[in-house]
Amino acid sequence: MGEYSKALEFYEKSHTIYEKALPQNHPDLALSNNNIAGVYNNMGDYSKALEFYEKSHKIAERALPSNHPNLALLYNNIGLIYNHMADYYKALEFHAKSHQIKEIALPPNHPDLATSYNNIGAVYNDMGDYSKALEFYDKSHEIREKALPPNHPDLALSYNNIGGVYNHMGDYSKALEFYEKSHQIREKALPPNHPDLALSYNNIGGVYNDMGEYSKALEFYEKTHQILEKALPPNHPSLALSYNNIGGVYNATGDYSKALEFYEKSRQIKEIALPLNHPDLAISYNNIGQVYNNTGDYSKALAFCEKSHKIHETALPPNHPNLATSYNNIGQVYN
């Protein structure tokens, strides 16, 4: 539901009981720390998430044999956090540890190995090493094709991720081909208002947006939004993303009043649903700042770009690429 403060409240109540009732190295305490870390991850508080994942990991290392799948899961989760923090070599290190356990503990076509290859591919994708990303996404896909039925949602995810790499490479026809394969599976496997169908429409819209086909992009973004409005509570962060993407199309077409309208709708949801220093709020402030810059209202543009920058400074490590983008955007306003 995206109600992170409520999730934390109940996970912490659970954790307090476990701490009193169980010995210090009990696996359920590791799981409890893991759950709290997951909420902080969703909130964008990556340092807190890392703190709790590491607590969980210390317990699990003492309590479990060295090749236990739960240790692989924890290494994987720590890897995901480092990836969010743009510490890609650390991310690869922990994903590799996770993968080594899975290779020993699982048969070669187990779906969890596919997930492992997928996550390594995602790090390379974020690093901009698209050939490596494709290599690992393809390995993941090969396992899933053997292990899963043809309309399994994880196969759709594989096609989706491969499509994403082609989109980053600017090979839009290939990107559309794989996004549409993903979409076809989801249409068969999922009910018509499932959020993953909305994700499919959103990704296809993103390709058309990158191609400059803005009417097509808007068509798919609006399909996305219609599903999300039915499927999700009104202040869910995914609705904010949907408004943001529609706003981006209007910004690109020079309809700045419409762009501001949708960017503001996105921002209002994020301010309600997310903590004040969440990176997604920084994106909202930045986008609003860019519209004001485009309309020549430089004082407003500067105010919003600086709000965005303050969040990035608080939430991200000092060498994160988003901080560089933030400085660049402030420079553009002054220019």
Automatic annotation (TrEMBL):
Database matches in InterPro entries: TPR-like_helical_dom_sf, TPR_rpt
Cytoplasm keyword on record: yes
PROSITE patterns per record: TPR, TPR_REGION
Compartment(s) of residence: Cytoplasm, Cytoskeleton
Position of the signal peptide: none
Subunit field text: Oligomeric complex composed of two heavy chains and two light chains.
Function: Kinesin is a microtubule-associated force-producing protein that play a role in organelle transport.
Family: Belongs to the kinesin light chain family.
Name assigned to this protein: Kinesin light chain
Species assigned in the record: Rotaria sordida
